[in-house]
Design goal:
Blueprint (H helix, E strand, L loop, with lengths): L5 H25 L9 E5 L6 H17 L3 E5 L6 H10 L4 E6 L1 H4 L1 H4 L11 E10 L1 E5 L8 H10 L5 E4 L3 H13 L4 E2 L5 H10 L4 E5 H9 L4 E5 L26 E8 L4 H15 L2 H8 L3 E3 L4 H21 L6
Parallel strand pairs: 1-2, 1-3, 6-7, 6-8
Antiparallel strand pairs: 3-10, 4-10, 4-11, 5-8, 5-9
């Protein structure tokens, strides 16, 4: 290199470095100070009306009152939560949060060969807000009353019965379950899980694993039959319905964990502050009852506690995928 050109090259490097540092500082500052300074957007990568959306809107309403700024929920469903998650990561405006299931970062990367984000490094867990009850429901046309009866029927008719499971942990858990019990059912995909309910009631699909909040109305109207919940404990919304463990299949036990996430450059003090606000809200009896009515349980954790839970879920589902040789597609 020409020695006379060296100062100019160094000047470019220094200037470029200053611009990068300035950009990072600006992004961090957008979350600092008297945050929020204007409307906060909460993106959820699910369709309106399902449990994630219901929980997000309950939390958004309460946060808006606490923060004295509008908090709006924006639904960006599709591609096993990838579309909404990408939209969140691209915002970079300092006032956008993500509300999604743990599966987005713990299970989806196990099922998708290409995930366009770092499931560990691109987000910061803020608070596990809600535990979601997952249900095992069947079409009434099968005229069965228990999960063991369905397993027996499916074993007798290999590949003749269809199933649907919402993306992420429910789908992976069902694949592992049917391998364990030695049955073979055929997956039917839906862009919107609501569509699966009508097909289930009409017998076009036979079994589904879906959020309880989504199917509760159809169950109460006797359009579909609730066989069990996959959680470790019974749900207050349907206390007479057994858990999968009580039904004889403890290996099918799993829960749905819904939480708030921030971008990777969110300052730790703001992360803690939002988590504290969320916990205070989730301890309010009115919010707890609102969630219980649709089959959800209010939780609320610190960022550190949520990070530990995420690590545990990541290890659990990775082990299940390895054990059952479930490869990403």
């Amino acid at each position: 290199m020409n020695k006379s050109a060296l100062p100019r090259v160094l000047a470019v490097i220094v200037t470029t470095g200053a611009m990068v540092v300035g950009s990072v500082v600006l992004q961090a500052q957008s979350f600092a100070g008297s945050w929020p300074e204007h409307t906060v957007r909460i993106i959820t990568p699910f369709s309106p009306g399902i449990s994630v959306d219901v929980a997000a809107r309950a939390l958004a309403d309460a946060l808006a009152k606490r923060w004295k700024q509008p908090v709006v929920v924006e639904n960006r469903p599709g591609a096993d939560t990838i579309i909404g998650t990408q939209a969140f990561l691209e915002m970079r405006d300092g006032h956008t949060l993500l509300f999604t299931t743990h599966s987005t970062f713990t299970v989806v990367p196990l099922l998708r060969a290409k995930v366009p984000y770092d499931p560990i490094g691109d987000v910061k867990p803020i608070s596990l807000a809600v535990e979601d009850f997952l249900s095992v429901v069947v079409t009434p046309r099968l005229e069965i009353g228990s999960l063991s009866e369905f397993v027996k029927l499916a074993r007798e008719q290999p590949t003749k019965l269809n199933f649907y499971a919402v993306p992420g942990a429910p789908y992976l858990a069902y694949l592992a379950f049917q391998q364990r019990v030695g049955m073979a059912t055929t997956f039917v995909a839906y862009n919107n899980p609501v569509s699966a309910i009508s097909d289930l009631s009409e017998g076009r699909i036979h079994i589904a694993v879906m959020p309880l909040a989504l199917v509760l109305g159809a169950v109460q109207a006797d359009k579909i039959k609730l066989l069990a919940v996959t959680n470790a404990v019974r749900t207050p919304a349907a206390p007479n319905v057994p858990t999968v463990g009580e039904a004889g299949y403890p290996e099918f036990t799993f829960g749905g964990f819904l939480g708030l996430f921030g971008p990777r450059d969110m300052p730790a003090d703001l992360q803690e502050r939002i988590a504290t606000d969320a916990r205070l809200i989730l301890n309010e009896p009115e919010i707890q009852q609102r969630l219980t009515n649709v089959g959800l349980i209010a939780r609320g954790t610190t960022p550190a506690e949520f990070a530990t839970i995420m690590d545990g879920q990541r290890a659990k589902w990775s082990a299940i995928a390895r054990e059952h040789k479930i490869e990403p597609q």
